[in-house]
Amino acid sequence: MAKIKITQIKSVIDRTERQKRTIAALGLKKINHSVEVEATPAIIGMVRKVNHLVAIESI
């Protein structure tokens, strides 16, 4: 599987609880924090739900 780098670019303040939990499940903690993860279907689905809060790069 390919790896992707996910960076949080917006705050989770005033977001739904579901979006906050999705960001936390991706391993993101604060703005400009990045994680590298495998591009599994589950991860891709989570990123799509919060695509307005994150930036994605292929590695």
UniProtKB/TrEMBL annotation:
SUPFAM superfamilies for the chain: Ribosomal protein L30p/L7e
Protein's name in the database: Large ribosomal subunit protein uL30
A GO CC annotation given for this chain: ribosome
Entry-linked Pfam families: Ribosomal_L30
Organism domain of life: Bacteria
Ribonucleoprotein listed as a keyword: yes
Residue ranges constituting the Large ribosomal subunit protein uL30-like ferredoxin-like fold domain according to the UniProt record: 4-54
Keyword annotations from UniProtKB, A to Z: Ribonucleoprotein, Ribosomal protein
Organism: Mucilaginibacter defluvii
CDD domains for this protein: Ribosomal_L30 (cd01658)
Entry's family note: Belongs to the universal ribosomal protein uL30 family.
Classification lineage: Bacteria, Pseudomonadati, Bacteroidota, Sphingobacteriia, Sphingobacteriales
Subunit structure: Part of the 50S ribosomal subunit.
